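Repro case for the chain-ordering regression, as requested:
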Amino acid sequence: MLKEVTSKLRDTAILLKANALLLLLTLSLFTAGAYAAESLPVVSSMPWWGWALSLFVTCFFLGIVAVPSGVGGGVLFVPIVGGFFPFHLDFVRGAGLLVALASALAAGPSLLRGGLADLRLALPLAVLASASSIAGAMVGLAIPANVVQIALGGTILGIVTLMAMAKKSEFPEVAAPDKLSLALSMNGIFHDAAQNKKIAWQVHRTPIGLMLFIGIGFLAGLFGMGAGWANVPVLNLLMGAPLKVSAGTSSFILTLVDSSAAWIYLNKGAVLAIIAVPSVIGMMLGALIGARLLHVLKASVVRKMVISLLLFAGLRALLKGLGIWV
Amino acid sequence: MSNVEKDSFISVEQQRYATWLSWGARSGLVILILSFLAYVFGWLPARIPLEQMPNVWNLSTHEYLHQTGAPTGWHWFTMVGQGDFAGLLGIAWLSGCSLLCLLVVMPIYAQRKDWIFVALCVIALLVQLLAASGILTVGH
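-- result from build under test --
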């Protein structure tokens, strides 16, 4: 009995510590953002290394919350860094793609080896999304920044709605695969560690899924965000892939989609190492910590915090684009 | 369940893709970090001094290119001896490492006469090469 009470108290203490850490991270993020917003003159008085360091610290925190909240780093990076740092949106989108790409590349091999990402499921979708991401990147770099800001703000608010409303299905029911998925053998078996058993899966509604991935790729290239927020619902809720396979395959698809778009930004001169590299390293280190905190942090709390953060960043992007809050 | 049994349902091509992707990603990150250190610590001279970056990173790419004369397309590769462009080496490597992975799985699909997936790999390669080629130009 005493042991049970002690154990419960210990758990509560861990939870309190974790939530306190989370609160600290949130405050730091908003403080960094507020400081950056105050320091937005065209020519900043802060030295280059101050901005690079702020960017690294911000991305480190974003990386920590990105893992437990289940969103990719790119979707947090572009609106937050675009809204509160003095960099032009072109460079932020270029760096955002690389943040999403590096995270996907780091996770890709183990996801493939573990069967949580499936090459046969991913390739047809990735081919279409890669091609459309090139178009998205070209459009994004051709239209005025304020138009991109407005569209980004609208999209982020859409993502917030999707995150708040969307349901998930651990193992969706797929009565029979469609003809296309059958022809492409888009099915498989994965080992679910939680249940310690092999689970066979297949998909349906493949033609609609392929069409939607064209749109998803376009948005990924246009805004420089990873597109996990859209990939997972399409794979899981529409096509019927198990949730873990959807999340893993989505991450793997980004290795191809984001690299196509990244080349366009790189060739156009829209990638600055001083912005991209601290972001990539900060986000990856943060994600390592985030993965370790996954068992301690309360995912629902982190998710709510990230939704609030995205809501704020989305409104900021929208108002910035409209010239109301510059 | 033994590892062999657990891994047995992961296809050969998927395992090969994973191995190459793993090496590509790791080496890319090493190149990225080393070239960035060379840039920020001044081991390589920078075309645009770091102190001047805050004056140009708020410009659109069009204005940035106009003011700094920075190269577009693959011209940066000829300036890789300069810190700011050396930093792009790791980025290009990370963006391009999937090309090798696609190349190494194609023979497996071909051996199995899985021509649809051979074609998909070829299309994916062409898309990546088109994006990387620099022939697609855009401007404000």
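Ordering looks correct now. Residues 69 and 304 of chain A are 8 Å apart (CA to CA).
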